[in-house]
What we know:
The structure holds 2 protein chains of 2 kinds.
Chain A: E1 5-6, H1 17-28, E2 40-42, H2 60-72, H3 84-114, H4 119-134
Helix pairs in contact in A: 3-4
Chain B: E1 6-7, E2 13-23, E3 43-47, E4 50-58, H1 66-80, E5 86-87, E6 93-94, H2 97-106, H3 109-119, E7 122-131, H4 133-143, H5 145-154, H6 163-191, E8 198-201, E9 209-218, H7 222-235, E10 240-248, E11 255-257
Antiparallel strand pairs in B: 1-2, 2-4, 2-5, 2-6, 3-4, 7-9, 7-10, 8-9
Amino acid sequence: xxxxxxxxxxxxxxxxxxxxxxxxxxxxxxxxxxxxxxxxxxxxxxxxxxxxxxxxxxxxxxxxxxxxxxxxxxxxxxxxxxxxxxxxxxxxxxxxxxxxxxxxxxxxxxxxxxxxxxxxxxxxxxxxxxxxxxx
Amino acid sequence: xxxxxxxxxxxxxxxxxxxxxxxxxxxxxxxxxxxxxxxxxxxxxxxxxxxxxxxxxxxxxxxxxxxxxxxxxxxxxxxxxxxxxxxxxxxxxxxxxxxxxxxxxxxxxxxxxxxxxxxxxxxxxxxxxxxxxxxxxxxxxxxxxxxxxxxxxxxxxxxxxxxxxxxxxxxxxxxxxxxxxxxxxxxxxxxxxxxxxxxxxxxxxxxxxxxxxxxxxxxxxxxxxxxxxxxxxxxxxxxxxxxxxxxxxxxxxxxxxxxxx
Lengths: 135, 261
């Protein structure tokens, strides 16, 4: 871990020059006295640089990228974390139970369609089926 | 500012690039390089107790190549470790030497001189921290039952079907990172409280930024500062990569007042 004080723009920081350049850009394009408005300039404490700062705005792309990164993590490899394996097990079991139930109902429905039954009973069953799958 | 263009002997349109304001007794090293290609020699324009670091610059070519940005920063940061300096934002160009002396230095002489006195012995330092992505994501997931559920939901679903879950999971992660960033930034500010004369918490410039804080500190307290930052880095080993930049010119602590009205 590097924590040595580095000249931000210098070549001798032990960091690739591209990272140094990024540091420089963050600073000298956003901050410092502005000559166009130099009429009155002084050193007066902290100004919240809301106008100039480039803010990281969370976007759909960010969300999707992080979701992808989370998905990629092999969580099973990490040290056991209380709660996580149990929870995962539960969800899987629960999911399977519902799935089974849903499949049975669907089969029954198909059968009744084949038999040319009226459509209303099938509609009544529909909420059950979506409950089973949606959970 | 006059609008008349100045031309040098070769007929090229030139202006005076201004880097920053320093006390009048500052000398520039003969090999100091300014902006431009080839780099222009750096000169000093003095007026009373203060001076401007400048170099001639062609005004008919765009500025802003990496070398120019580096030159601007290097000159000011190099100065900051030995003398107080008021840095100008990159890209300040005035018509000629007279306008620098009169319109910039004379007009603001007392304010600049006072600001330079206040800065004496101080420089800016920046503490930057970047989360290790895998480590911080594991931390987020382990702390959020919602994220665990969403992650489980996604597995086995087609990419299209999982889109809503992915969006929701990503949002949970981003919000959790925002909260962690705020807490970790506060921890850094607190740890450096007795060294920092002033602090400016910068906005994050990267989604994995943990800390981005500029502080004004005495140059002779640099070792103490470094030790404190080292402690923080050790505490966060593997979780946050911490860097300390400096000494730098006090970019974050010089403020241009808006003209009245």
